[in-house]
Write a structure and sequence with these properties.
Layout lengths: L4 E4 L2 E2 L6 H6 L4 E7 L3 E3 L1 H16 L5 H15 L4 E8 L6 E7 L9 E7 L13 H12 L4 E6 L3 E5 L3 E5 L3 E5 L7 H9 L6 E5 L11 E6 L2 E8 L2 E2 L4 H12 L3 E3 L4
Parallel strand pairs: 7-8, 7-14, 11-12
Antiparallel strand pairs: 1-2, 1-6, 3-5, 4-16, 5-6, 8-9, 10-11, 10-13, 13-14, 14-15
Length: 262
């Protein structure tokens, strides 16, 4: 079956049920998963994210087992065991509607990333919501200026997150995540749990553009994986091969969760 493949509340998308996301517009939220052999890392984080955001936006929760069955159903219907999957949740308030979108799998580029700082922070940053116009706008702006992504910052150049990533810095002792409202990405959540076992301290601290000289390396994370950062604006970072090896190992050795336990 040709991808992308879409199911809404367990039914293949058609003109009737596509009215739900069409009419509810940008009010909703989602999570993005990379599925390999019918498994995903950090599944519990994805399910918790969906349930909490659904409760906050609509009132009722979203049962995790229902979500697992909907993802498994969509994967089976399109014959995909490796895929990039997104689960969107729209209204109405009394019956939030999940939509599963299955696309071809994607991985994080292995090349170093360059980030252009921009004066913007996502509203309601703890929710992976659908209001992504500004992120897309600044992301395109960054690309036109020769960067790979935008870096979102607040007043005084306080660093928050990438347009579609979390960012971490290395001060020679600790992995430092910016202490600013941002989305807790699932890859970041998995790493925070696992880095201590690989000899890396993980902390949250205010990071500013003016203070980047305090850090010798940086990397970004999202559902596609992890990549080193080579530049923020004109500030260059060397790739710390040993740091990246340990960070990658912490993530790569994280357990895979079966989506459909049978």
């Amino acid at each position: 079956m040709t991808l992308p493949y879409v199911e809404i509340d367990g039914r293949p998308a058609d003109a009737e049920n596509l009215l739900v996301p069409t009419l509810t517009g940008a009010y909703g939220h989602f999570t993005a998963l990379q599925v390999r052999a019918g498994r995903v890392r950090g599944l519990a984080h994805h399910l918790t994210r969906l349930d909490r955001a659904t409760r906050e936006l609509f009132g009722p929760g979203l049962d995790g087992e229902r979500v697992r069955s909907l993802i498994a159903r969509a994967l089976t219907a399109c014959g995909a065991s490796d895929a990039a999957v997104r689960v969107y949740v729209y209204g109405p308030d009394d019956a939030p509607t999940p939509m599963v979108v299955v696309r071809e799998p994607v991985d994080m580029p292995s090349t170093t990333q360059s980030l252009l700082s921009v004066p913007y922070e996502r509203p309601v940053a703890h929710i992976k919501h659908l209001g992504g116009f500004a992120q897309a706008y600044y992301g395109r702006l960054a690309e036109r200026q020769g960067f790979t992504e935008a870096l979102l910052t607040g007043p005084g150049g306080v660093v928050a997150e990438g347009a579609v990533t979390n960012i971490a810095f290395w001060d020679g002792t600790s992995v430092v995540w910016p202490d600013r409202p941002s989305l807790l990405g699932v890859t970041k959540a998995v790493l925070e749990e696992r880095l201590p076992a690989y000899g890396l301290t993980s902390v949250h601290r205010e990071v500013t553009l003016d203070g980047l000289d305090a850090y010798s390396a940086a990397f970004v994370t999202n559902s596609r994986g992890i990549a080193p950062v080579g530049r923020v604006d004109e500030r260059e970072f060397a790739v710390d091969a040993e740091l990246m090896k340990r960070v990658w190992r912490a993530f790569e050795e994280a357990p895979w969760d079966v989506i459909d336990p049978g």
